[in-house]
Specification:
alpha/beta; 14 strands; Metallo-beta-lactamase, Chain A; globular; about 25% helix; about 230 residues; eight-stranded mixed β-sheet; six-stranded mixed β-sheet; binds zinc ion
Length: about 230
């Protein structure tokens, strides 16, 4: 369901900032809008209905919001529409005001669950480096996926192992990180090959060994521009 614009950690711009999008007819859902995202998402915005663009922000680290202001203003000034912005804490509006993005340029929504482009998209709280960090659960009639964004532990691990979540996209770290899930611990937490085949690692630092992860039975999220 997800197409990845970037799969990199904050300090790994070679992979692009971690971000994904979903295209549904003329509607466009964007998950996070880090510093590298605008350049990659611009053609998708150009192809979308200017009033059917939905941006979900998981937290306000710059690798997740760095080009949010530019993206909102692009939809407003160039596409002559208003993007819908989703984040559970209205304080994000203050951040955007500091960036000189007028509140008239987008439509803000702080609900935890939203019906968007035929999908149900819900925020859930995660443990990361600061308050107000969220992952997303995205459901359609056939499947439920989870996008962890950034987290130090897998909040919905049991739901995943019990099959209530069909596919998990999880941030991992090659080292003993306190803000992302250390890959070493994932090997213990998800021992079953059938479960590993439903899990995609993402938000990768430059030392992360993708080939080893595949050998271990996991998937590695693939950046769209690398797949072409
Ligand atoms: Zn991040
Ligand atoms: Zn973060």
């Amino acid at each position: 369901m997800l197409n990845f614009l970037g799969i990199g950690g904050a300090f790994n711009p070679e992979y692009g900032n971690n971000s994904a999008y979903i295209k549904r007819d003329k509607g466009l859902i964007i998950i996070d809008c880090g510093s590298t995202v605008f350049g990659d998402i611009k053609p998708k915005i150009d192809a979308a209905d200017s009033n059917d663009i939905h941006i979900f922000i998981t937290h306000t680290h710059t690798d997740h919001v760095g080009s949010l202001g530019t993206t909102l203003d692009y939809v407003y000034y160039v596409k002559k529409g208003k993007a819908n912005l989703y984040f559970p804490d209205p304080k994000i509006i203050d951040m955007l005001i500091m960036m000189k993005i007028s509140t008239n340029h987008y439509i803000f929504n702080s609900e935890l669950t939203n019906e968007v482009c035929g999908l149900t998209v819900s925020f859930y709280e995660t443990k990361h480096l600061l308050d107000n960090c969220y992952g997303l659960i995205i459901k359609d009639n056939h499947q439920t996926i989870c996008y962890s964004s950034d987290c130090s532990e897998i909040t919905l691990l049991q739901d995943f192992l019990q099959g209530k979540i069909n596919t998990l996209y999880l941030d991992v770290s090659s080292n003993e990180s306190k803000v992302h899930v250390p890959y070493k611990s994932l090997l213990t937490l998800v021992p079953n090959p059938a479960d590993r085949s439903r899990l995609y690692v993402m938000h990768l630092d430059k030392y992360f060994d993708k080939k080893q992860a595949i050998k271990d039975g996991f998937n590695v999220a693939e950046r769209e521009c690398d797949a072409l």
